[in-house]
Specification:
This protein is α+β, with helices and mostly antiparallel strands. The protein is built from 16 helices and 21 strands. It has an eleven-stranded mixed sheet with strand order 8-11-12-13-15-14-19-20-18-17-16. The chain has a seven-stranded mixed sheet with strand order 1-2-3-4-5-7-6, with helices on both faces. Strands 9-10-21 form a three-stranded mixed sheet. A hairpin with a 4-residue loop joins strand 9 and strand 10. Helix 1 crosses helix 3, helix 6 crosses helix 7 and helix 12 crosses helix 16. The protein is globular.
C-alpha cells in the first residue's frame, strides 16, 4: 500500500464529510446517540460549511490517501502569535486503521508545528474514546485536564493535553511496538465474566516459585521479616524489617542517575526466568523479585514511558476492578518512591495489607469533605499526614473528579508537572476507592545524614499508608513514634491540606 498526504482543496469538502460521517458513527455512537451525531455533523460540517472552513487562513487541512483512495483526514488550527498548534480533528476510516496512516498525518502536524515555532502539539480527545486515547498515548500524549464537550444534546468528558515534539529530528516520540516473546508469557488476560484475573495472578506467583530459584528464596525470606506496631498520636503505624528491599530503598532517583543506568523494567532487561501475564496487550504483570507482601506484583507498561498518573488513571481503575476482590493496586509518583520513575508501572498488594486501607473505612475516623454526583471525598482525623479518600460507583465521574483535583492542586501550588503524591486504589463491592497521600518531598533529611545518624527510610505508597519498610536492622530498631510522626510531618502535607485542596477544586 502506498500512503500519501496532501493538502486539502475546496473539492475535498465532500470527502471530508464522508470520512467524518463514517468515523463518528464508528467511534462515538456507543456513548452519543446516532441522531445527535448526524444532526451535529450537518449543523457544523456539511459540505457547504466545510468549504468555508477550508478557506480559513489559520486552518491547515490534509487528506491521507491509500493507493490514491481517500483514507483519512486531519485539520490543524494554527495560532501564529502564540505559536500554538491544535490538532482539531484527525480521523482514519476504520478499514484503513493500523496501517500507519494516522502516524503519517501526525508527522505532518509535527512539521507544521515546527514551522510555526511550536514545541508541542495540543490535542483534545473524548475520554470514552479509549482506542484513540491509547493511540495518542503511544505517541507521547500527556493529559493535562478534562473539560466538558457537548455534541448535540449530549455532554461528555474531553481530555485536553499535548505531545512534546523532538525538534532535532523533527519527529514525534513514537514508541516502537514491543513484542513479547511467547516464552515470556504465562497467560494473556482479556476481561471475561468467567475468568478471574486475581486467580490468574495467583497462578503466575505459584509458577514463578517453581521456575525461578531467586524469586522462591525471596518469598521464603518473608517468613523471616520482623514487623512491629508503633502507636502514635491518633493512629498506629507498623515497621517491617526487610533486607531484600535495600536496593530499592537506596536507589538513586535523580535525573542524572536515571539517565545513566539502563531501565530494569524494560522487557529486554528482565531476568531470563521472569515470565508475565499480558494484560489487555498494554501491561506486563510481573512477580516482584524483592517482595514486601505475599504475593507482591509489579505491573509494567510494555512501552518505556515516564511514570505519570493522570494519563493512566483509567488503566489503574480498570486494573483495580480486574484484580478485585483479592488485591489493591498502588502508585508511587516519580518523585515519591518510584525506583524506576522513567518507566510507567504500578504495584499490587493483597487487599487491606496496608493500615490505611483499614483506617479508610473506619467511620469513627472519617470526615466528609464533599458528596455530590456519585462522588464522596473524605479525610481521616488525627492522622499525622494529609490523606484524601475518593469513592464512587461511577468510574467516569471518579476520573473527572480526580483530574479536577489535580488541576486545582497544580493551581494552588503553582506547579506545571505532576504534584507529589502516592495513591492506593481498590475496587470492592462495586465501589472504587482512591486513597491519596499528598507529599511535600520524597525522603526525610535523616536519609542523607552520616552513617551514625542516617535512617534509611525512603517513603513510598506503602510507607505513607502506614507500613514503613526498613531494610537495615539498625533502622528497624530505632523506629519509634517520634520518628514516625516526624517523618510524616516532613515529607507529607499537613492534615488541613486535604480540606484546602477539596475547597480549591470547588472554587
Amino acid at each position: 500500500m502506498n500512503a500519501a498526504i496532501r493538502r486539502w482543496t475546496q473539492d475535498d469538502a465532500g470527502v471530508v464529510y464522508r470520512i467524518l460521517h463514517e468515523t463518528w458513527l464508528a467511534s462515538y455512537s456507543s456513548f452519543i446517540p446516532k441522531d445527535e451525531l448526524l444532526e451535529y455533523l450537518e449543523l457544523h460540517y456539511s459540505p457547504g460549511i466545510l468549504k468555508n472552513i477550508i478557506q480559513e487562513p489559520e486552518t491547515h487541512g490534509y487528506i491521507a490517501e491509500a493507493d490514491g483512495v481517500p483514507a483519512g483526514y486531519m485539520r490543524l488550527k494554527i495560532e501564529a502569535e502564540a505559536s500554538n498548534v491544535f490538532v482539531s480533528q484527525l480521523y482514519v476510516l476504520p478499514s484503513y486503521q493500523k496501517l500507519g496512516i494516522g502516524k503519517k498525518l501526525m508527522q505532518t502536524a509535527v512539521n507544521d508545528a515546527i514551522s510555526a515555532g511550536s514545541d508541542r502539539l495540543r490535542i483534545g480527545v473524548m475520554v470514552q474514546n479509549g482506542a484513540s486515547v491509547r493511540w495518542y498515548r503511544s505517541l507521547g500524549y500527556r493529559i493535562e485536564k478534562v473539560e466538558p464537550f457537548t455534541m448535540g444534546r449530549t455532554t461528555v468528558d474531553h481530555y485536553i493535553g499535548s505531545i512534546e515534539i523532538k525538534r532535532a529530528g523533527r519527529e514525534l516520540p513514537f514508541h516502537p511496538e514491543v513484542h513479547v516473546p511467547a516464552e515470556r508469557i504465562f497467560s494473556v488476560y482479556t476481561p471475561h465474566p468467567e475468568k478471574s484475573f486475581g486467580a490468574l495472578c495467583g497462578g503466575l506467583f505459584t509458577r514463578q516459585r517453581l521456575l525461578w530459584k531467586h524469586f522462591d528464596e525471596a518469598v521464603q525470606s518473608l517468613d523471616e521479616v520482623q514487623i512491629k506496631t508503633i502507636p502514635c498520636r491518633g493512629f498506629n503505624a507498623a515497621v517491617q524489617y526487610n533486607q531484600a528491599r535495600l536496593a530499592s530503598v537506596s536507589a538513586p532517583v535523580d535525573a542524572d542517575s536515571i539517565g545513566r543506568r539502563p531501565c530494569f523494567l524494560c522487557l529486554d532487561r528482565l531476568p531470563p526466568e521472569q515470565i508475565c501475564i499480558l494484560w489487555r496487550d498494554s501491561f506486563l504483570v510481573l512477580c516482584n523479585p524483592a517482595p514486601i507482601f505475599r504475593p507482591h506484583f509489579t505491573i509494567v507498561s510494555k512501552m518505556h514511558a515516564p511514570q505519570e498518573i493522570v494519563s493512566h488513571t483509567d488503566e489503574m481503575l480498570e486494573l483495580a476492578r480486574d484484580l478485585s476482590p483479592f488485591y489493591s493496586i498502588f502508585y508511587n509518583g516519580p518523585q515519591c518512591g518510584a525506583s524506576a520513575p522513567d518507566h510507567l508501572h504500578f504495584q499490587v498488594s493483597p487487599w487491606r495489607a496496608m493500615p490505611s486501607e483499614i483506617d479508610a473505612v473506619d467511620a469513627g475516623r472519617r470526615i466528609l469533605l464533599y458528596y455530590k454526583s456519585h462522588i464522596a471525598a473524605t479525610t481521616l482525623k488525627n492522622y499525622g499526614r494529609a490523606v484524601i479518600i475518593l469513592e464512587s460507583t461511577d468510574c467516569e465521574q471518579l476520573k473527572t473528579y480526580f483530574f479536577g483535583l489535580v488541576d486545582a492542586w497544580k493551581t494552588i501550588a503553582g506547579l506545571h508537572d505532576e504534584p507529589l503524591m502516592n495513591v492506593v486504589c481498590s475496587y470492592q463491592e462495586r465501589i472504587w476507592r482512591l486513597i491519596i497521600f499528598p507529599r511535600k518531598k520524597h525522603r526525610p533529611a535523616l536519609y542523607g545524614k552520616n552513617e551514625k545518624e542516617q535512617i534509611l527510610i525512603s517513603p513510598g505508597a506503602v510507607d505513607m499508608a502506614g507500613l514503613f519498610i526498613a531494610p537495615r536492622l539498625m533502622d528497624y530498631e530505632r523506629m519509634d513514634s517520634v520518628l514516625v510522626e516526624s517523618i510524616y510531618a516532613e515529607v507529607a502535607e499537613d492534615e488541613k491540606f486535604a480540606e484546602r485542596l477539596i475547597r480549591g477544586r470547588e472554587i
